[in-house]
Amino acid sequence: MPHCVIEYSAPLAEVLAIDELVRCVHQGAIASALFEPASIKTRALCCEHFAVGEAAGSFIHIGFAIMPGRSQAQKQQLTQAVYDLIAHLVAEVDSLTMNITELDHATYFKQVS
Questions:
Q1: What is the pTM for the complete model shown?
Q2: Care to name a GO molecular-function term for this sequence (predicted)?
């Protein structure tokens, strides 16, 4: 844990190194020191169809799904650690958002082989 899911508007792939974005988000989660590095999973999902406000703007949304138990300060530490590493990549993106969602222990399923 956590799952770091990066959603981005498709045209960004032409002007932004998505693999570098994934690497930086992953490193930011490690740098937060809130998780065991081996448990962090990061992936990027391209959104072909999207709308941003009233214009054809670009966006990146990073969602973090984590187990409960971290304080608000620790959650802010996570988003700040990630932002510090991606800021240079996303300077020209119209909308950057991040959100942390806590998973429910009772309904979360994980199988490792």
A1: 0.93
A2: 5-carboxymethyl-2-hydroxymuconate delta-isomerase activity
